[in-house]
Design brief:
Strand content: 5-15%
Radius of gyration: 26 Å
Order of helices and strands: HHHHHHEHEHEHEHEHEHEEH
Largest sheet: 8 strands, mixed
Strand order of the largest sheet: 3-2-4-1-5-6-7-8
Structural class: alpha/beta
Helix content: 40-55%
Number of strands: 8
Shape: elongated
Number of helices: 13
């Protein structure tokens, strides 16, 4: 049978109408081609667009057709502090902008370039990859953070990365408070082809972590990722339980956990500072993962955290997709938040 091209479709519809005495259904238009997948840089820039937009608009309004003076610099500092970059970083940027430029015109683009350079200088020392020591089996990664930060999803994405590198992975469903978290982790395990150690809701989280580490050692697993309940940092009894998980893990391996990753939701802004402080004391945080940078005007908080704590930032996330979590690159982040292509 020969193919019917687009020009023949109306004729065919008319013939059907005459044959059956009623109007034939109109031919359906071809479905549009799927939109091409954005690159990581495009997704990062899009994710930080609200932050960069707020900063960029403020800088443009402030520096267009106006000579540099104290009022201008104070206005710039206000913009940067409101964008959650932190007082210290804002002060350094303002000092860099003002150096040798008093009473002179300065274009908004030049201010953005200085902003990007100073942000990159702050972030470069903390942009460090997560290094898995292959001599340690299993390499134990404890995931901590408050409810809704994206911990369980981040575990799934990290598992996918480790599996793609050829590593064997075991997951421990240590968030025993929420049945949904246990089921979610099981789904990630199935998707990535790796075992999940789980117990019924309400089971002892420390006991589960102990069992998981014991099983992972016996199996010679490369990486063990342990989920934990999403604790509010001001709930002392829940933080004490997290402390117990760490103690029990060390009964099996005195050096474990080998990495403690705090997953932070970018939308919480300044509240992230207290989370780093409290989780650092309780669990000994070794690195950060920043999620939900898409759709938030508070991406600048990552800069403030870097300046204050100096903790490695291993990954950032700009969406829910499996590949929306990538190693942190200081230069890319600095350009994106300054709105520079």
């Amino acid at each position: 049978m020969s193919d019917t091209n687009g020009d023949d479709a109306p004729k065919k519809a008319g013939l059907l109408s005459r044959l059956f005495g009623r109007e034939a259904p109109a031919p359906q238009p071809a479905s549009p081609a799927a939109e091409p997948r954005l690159s990581w840089w495009q997704r990062l820039k899009q994710g930080l667009s609200r932050s960069s937009g707020a900063i960029g608009t403020g800088i443009t309004d402030l520096f267009t057709k106006r000579k540099l003076d104290e009022d201008t610099l104070e206005g710039l500092e206000d913009i940067l502090v409101q964008a959650d970059l932190g007082v210290d970083v804002a002060g350094r940027i303002v000092e860099a902008v003002g150096k040798g430029r008093y009473g002179k015109d300065i274009a908004p683009e030049e201010v953005k370039a200085i902003l990007a350079a100073e942000v990159e200088r702050t972030l470069a020392p903390v942009a460090r990859p997560l290094v898995v020591d292959d001599r340690t089996k299993p390499f134990v990664i404890l995931m901590v953070g408050v409810n809704g930060s994206g911990k369980t999803t981040t575990i799934g994405k990290l598992t996918s990365k480790f599996r793609s590198e050829g590593r064997s992975v075991m997951l421990a469903a240590g968030d025993t408070f929420r049945a949904a978290a246990i089921e979610q982790l099981k789904v990630w395990g199935e998707r990535n082809g790796c075992p999940v150690v789980a117990r019924p809701q309400g089971a002892d989280a420390a006991g589960l972590a102990f069992d998981a580490l014991t099983q992972a050692r016996e199996a010679g697993t490369d990486v063990l990722l342990i989920d934990t309940a999403g604790r509010l940092q001001n709930r002392t009894e829940l933080m004490a339980e997290l402390e117990k998980v760490v103690r029990v893990i060390r009964k099996v391996d005195a050096q474990a956990p080998h990495a403690v990753l705090l997953v932070l939701d970018a939308t919480v802004g300044q509240n992230a500072i207290s989370q780093v402080e409290i989780f650092g004391k309780v669990a000994g945080v070794t690195g950060l993962v920043m999620t939900k940078l898409d759709g938030t005007a508070r991406g600048g908080i990552l800069v403030a955290l870097a300046a204050r704590f100096g903790l490695p930032v291993h990954f950032i996330g700009v969406g829910e997709g499996i590949d929306d979590l990538e190693p942190f690159e200081a230069a890319d982040f600095a350009k994106a938040i300054a709105g520079i292509d």
